[in-house]
Amino acid sequence: MRIGLLTDGGYPYATGESRLWCDRLVRGLAQHDFDVYALSRSAQQVEQGWIQLPPQVQRVRTAPLWAPEDDGHTYGRRDRRRFLGHFKELAAAVCADGDDHREAFAEGLYGLADLARERGGLYSALRSEVAVRVLESACRAPGARRTVHAATVPDYLMFADELERTLRPLSLDWYADDGLGTVDLCHAASGGSAALPGLLAKRFFGVPLLVTEYGVHLRAHYLSADGAELSAPVRALLAAFQRRLAAEVYAQASVITPGNAHARRWQEKCGADRARLRTVHPGMEADRFAAVGEGADSGDPHTLVWIGRIEPAKDLIALLHAFAEVRKAEPQARLRLFGAPVHGAEAATYLAHCQALAAQLFPDEAADAHAVGDNPVSFEEIGGPEAPELADAYATGGVVVLSSVVEGFPISLVEAMFCGRATVSTDVGAVVEVIGGTGLVVPPRNPRALADACIALLRDPERRERLGAAARARALELFTVEQNLAAFRGIYLELISHSPVRREAVDEDGAPVPFGHPAEAHMQGRWTGRAAGPGSGTEAGPESGTASRSAADGRTAPGAAHHKAPRWADGPRTGHVAPAAADIPTPAKEARA
Predict the structure, then answer these.
(1) pTM, entire model
(2) Which of 16, 167, 183, 352 has the greatest number of CB atoms lying within 10 Å of its CB?
């Protein structure tokens, strides 16, 4: 099948949060063709170029969200009235208080999309004086949110600018017969702008939409908006728009795959139907940690290890204060902090503050009058002489610590589990879901509790070994690339079984391929492991596809007694194997049945 992979600021560019898992997905599902539709976030990202793409990527189309994209079109009187009506609906839904305006938001959004597809000119219209007046009226209308009442003209201009960037996918030329109309399934790698082309592909062509969020886009917007230099009315307007957009994306998506239960709860609060949610944990490469996880060396039994990005959300201040209590109970204890190279003034300032606090709490200590003093806390970079590889950093200690106050899916925690290390973590984000009883969890912002848990593990080597072995077993079961690919392989097949095939199957010479799309591909339902026995007259399940329909007719589907699914629906295989004659339903066989 052909998958339209929709990304925002990630794959196929060399930088971006979704780059790694999208690349693993595309390479792991080599039996499918992928068309990548990518939104870029900065000129620097574009200059750094793409990663090397596998052959199953058939096409890449990109569009910038950071540069002006004026197509030079302007509207006549009729089109201006049309734009005005749709934009009024959209603005009123964004500014209105309460959550009962999804239909009005959708009408405005799709009306603008239809106008942009037919006439273009949306860039100029959204930045026009007319649009600013509509925003002003919506903000001052009865029933509008209290925060937006105080908005001024600069606020309207700022929001209009941000809104145009977010809605820029509506004006792209991706919705022709040679674009998203040719794919069998749209897979959005995040919510927000990345999912907008998927919404339009479903509206224009009926293409099913799958949305994956390892970090909920709306939550990420809330967190980033707090630190942005925007006025309160602009932040309120942007948050309301993103909330309306998230609700529409969740309502139109056939399946939504959160990366963890924490993200799933966010999606449910934003209106996602629980029946459409399938938790698919991120897939991580376990092989790179196999040498540490399977080795006999369990690390220095007196060393605590922290690994991550140096930033305030990681709460290294609380960790340093907790380690001061650990040192009182265990004088031989050491703390090694491994961080990625620091970029940006804020991160550099935070690192300097942490280093100054460590120097104050732990003056250099010397064993005697002739030895050089040594600090029990060290700040090191991954890739340095002590830890040239990430796995080497985890191997240096016996206990891995996570002290964050804000966390989504704790990747460093899963890496520590792959390495077979006992862990002490704060109860934030998806930590409890990931740990599952294989480590110690304490409240965030509680140095005393963090210290007590670390002391308990430092003093009990047998417990450390038990927890580390259990953690590695759990990580190998739930968080590998293989389980991630298996989940998406099944979801792809399920979604395509509910939608008709949209193109003819042809070989390399362009000739039609007989039975390229078996009859089963056109039938709704999902394949089950068991079909009803001959003459049983019972169904295999409420959505058992061909098997249940055959059972209802008093027949057994060909091959259903021996296969969980027809062979054309199997996973990746080497070479092409033609279906057996017994697996191809023909009118003669159906008549004999």
Answers:
(1) 0.79
(2) 183
State the distance between the two ends of the chain, measured CA to CA, in whole angstroms. Answer: 31
Other Cβ atoms within 10 Å of 90 Cβ, number: 26
DSSP 8-state secondary structure symbol assigned to residue 586? -
Phi, psi of 284 (to 5 degrees): -125, 150
Under 8 Å between Cβ of 127 and 87 = no
Task: Please tell me the chain's helix, strand, coil percentages from 3-state DSSP, rounded to the nearest 5.
Answer: 50, 15, 40
Report the DSSP beta bridge partners of residue 256.
Answer: 211, 277
Please give the structure tokens belonging to residue 152. Answer: 């001024």
Q: List beta partners, residue 187.
A: 5, 210
φ, ψ dihedrals at 564, nearest 5° = -70, -30
Q: What are the pLDDT tens digits along the chain (593 aa)?
A: 899 999 998 899 988 778 889 999 999 999 999 999 999 988 888 999 999 999 999 999 999 988 777 777 788 899 999 999 999 999 999 999 877 788 999 999 999 999 999 998 899 999 999 999 999 999 999 989 999 999 999 999 999 999 999 999 999 999 987 899 999 999 999 888 899 999 999 999 999 999 999 877 777 777 776 656 789 999 999 999 999 999 999 999 999 999 988 889 889 988 899 999 999 999 999 999 999 999 888 899 999 999 999 999 999 999 999 999 999 999 999 999 999 888 888 889 999 999 999 999 998 765 555 455 578 999 999 888 888 899 999 999 999 999 999 888 899 999 999 999 999 999 998 999 999 999 999 999 999 999 999 999 999 999 999 999 999 999 999 999 999 999 999 999 999 888 765 566 667 776 777 766 655 554 545 545 444 444 334 334 334 443 443 433 443 333 344 444 444 444 444 444 444 444 444 434 343 33
Distance CA 254, CA 7 (A): 18
- Retrieve residue 446's tokens: 């509680």
DSSP track, 30-77: TTSEEEEEEEE--HHHHHH-BPPPPTTEEEEEEEESSS---------H
Token readout for 393 is 């950093």
Answer for the pair 402, 431: CB distance below 8 angstroms, yes or no: yes
The helix/strand/coil state of 213 is strand
